[in-house]
């Protein structure tokens, strides 16, 4: 987190997620969040609002950095990139939704798996797989991801 102080008081907090840091279009960040961290019902109610809020926030940040959003990244370009990169939601969903549906006590020990992989130079098991206890939740979530990607015109 980064903090902005004025007169010794925190005025703003910005969160950073370094776990999947890469140089990509900002659209991939919102698509990743929407399809991995929300469920179908939430997307039905708030998808368009989330997209609008995200774009307004991005525009505000670009303005603070002294860029003209109409030139650098107009809404039409953002919307076009949503159509192109929206399918990224399905790819990330297939990878992460099983983990999101798994109870904490059933999550694999990533550190132990990394050591095992270093010793054998291969990984013989999936990091995030479905189990009997998460199968129903996984099927519900991933089905909604696929339906929503189709509904929003990504496929």
UniProtKB/TrEMBL annotation:
Domain of life: Eukaryota
Protein's name in the database: CHK kinase-like domain-containing protein
Positions in coiled-coil regions: none
